[in-house]
Write the structure tokens for this entry.
Amino acid sequence: MRCALPICFFFLLSTTVLAQSPWPASNDTIPANWSGHVFSPNFDFPTFPPAAEHLPWSGIDFRTDPEAYMKAVLSYVFEGMDKSNWDGKANTVRQWYHATWMHEGYNGREFIHGLTRERSSRSGDLGAGQTKCYQNWAVSITNPIGGYTYGQVRGNGLALPDARKSQFSPSTVFAKLLFTQAPAREVPFLSGAPEWEANINDPTDLFPANGSDPCPSNRAPRLPQKVRLLQFDIAVRHNVNESATGWVYRTFAYDGRTAGTDAWAKLKPIGLIWGNDPTLTDSAAASGVKPTQSIVLTNLGLGRPFGRGERMNGPADNPESACLSCHATGQYQSIARLIPRRTASENNVLCR
């Protein structure tokens, strides 16, 4: 089953959900002697549509003033949030909710902060000093109106989720925090980044990836390790007449070279995307034609575009696609390709 764009953003639809049973919080068995933080997901979805909120980005045109728009959305996500662990239930302004069933599989949620494994960063992706492939892990949350839709899809007493109710309403917000195993000694702009402990795969257990660049295997045993904030993604549902897809995605990246002492204030806006530029071919992009449904503000000085044909994308993301394009082709189970082939013989490549 192909899934529609809204449901694909940080949301994995389960094959069988038993309404009378709680969803597992993680894919891990918590060690008996563990005394640190333990992820506690918020699955207490609203049963009624939440009251309308003041949205600080309303009235700001994301096309003409992208930085002000991105700053306003980021301030909304930060509001009332305990940034030490991003506990959605502890927010003092509004609740934030997690998608169910993200514990499933080898990339499923780990138990310390609820991170799921993302696409790894190959050597050189994050700068010339990056000498080998490193794991990336992420967790996402949604605001009350997004949580209401989750609850409607989940249903009450249904054996299967109801995908007919999966269209998110305008003002839905998703935020995703993406952390990397890459060290600051190899990626200097990560210096001083917020750090979490996460139960991720043993970095000494490698499998070949991209030919000669081995990455830690997602089948390797997991053990607690330090990860640091690399990327912060936010998606906002707009009215369909406001964007080509009804969504605007924006990406920030941590940049320790920014002045100041507040690490969370060092999230640099990379850009935003509201459409896929479906008529922009690879050959046109190579000849200098630019996307019209993306705005890219910086590449962090890494000397490469992050997205295909210079569409907006994050530094951790697959450069063969783009933020919105990759999520737009999401599906469960994964049957069709998520990104176009470069050559007829190219193997299937997933966004992560």
Observations:
- The chain has one domain: 5-328.
- Strands lie at 116-117, 136-142, 173-180, 195-201, 206-207, 215-216, 222-237, 247-254, 267-273, 294-296.
- The CA atoms of residues 37 and 112 lie 6 Å apart.
